[in-house]
Sequence to fold (257 residues):
Amino acid sequence: MTVVDAGPLTLAKAKLVAFAEGGVSVPTTVAIFEHPQHGVVLWDTGCNDAVADPDRAESYWGRGIKDAFGAHGFTRDHAIDRQLDRLGIQPNDVRYVIYSHLHLDHAGGMSYFPNALHVMQKDELRYALFPDAWTRPVYCQNDFKDIHKLNVLEIDGDLDLFGDGTFRLIKSPGHAPGMQVLLVTLAHRGRFMLGGDIAHQRDQFEALIPMPWDWSCAAMTSSRLKIKQLERSGIPLYLCHEPGEFAALPINGSHWD
Ligand SMILES: [Zn+2]
Fold:
């Protein structure tokens, strides 16, 4: 596994952690795996390249959204297609794309992978295509423009994706209706969890503080308590947007296996 930052964001911390003070610069973690039998597997896809283009960002994400999420540091080279190219992987090589959820910093690369099986929670897919008005800004409908042409695997609940324990999906609703956490088992590294947006920052996770856009604080709390118990049991958790945790992962071509 290697990870890349496919969506650097600089914004008021209060946009990620309710009532927090100050500002933060955060990565958006995308993980790339090569499964010995099942080929290249992606965990999330970051932001779409249109967001890096001053002429297209507003029409793609919607008015004011790029400013609101502080995506000005996101360049064309951050988009996952270019990052994979640097690692020698072509879009058609990608066999599986697993989504923690379908917010615009996670599903932006969906249309880059026409040959992949796109794995997501059923609740997330249904909600993303017709979100409540107050969550509409974070579900970019342009990200889903090819969804009816793609091969989508909708799952409802937990799944051991290949039946071999390597990729276990744990449904963890709250931040979004179909959020899921990925519990990975690698031959040498052992087990760890990629948390998606189970929380955006570590202090928020520990103190059970919501994010202003959380779909359900009640569901979010239950899901965090569940993932905390796995962490307490000795399975490390890496939050997608926590800079220190991103830095602890193997970045840009260095590997865990
Ligand atoms: Zn996110």
About this structure: The chain has a mean pLDDT of 97. The pocket of zinc ion is lined by residues 103, 105-106, 197, 240-241 (CB under 6 Å). The chain has seven helices and 13 strands. The helical segments are 57-61, 65-68, 80-86, 122-129, 202-207, 217-232, 243-247.
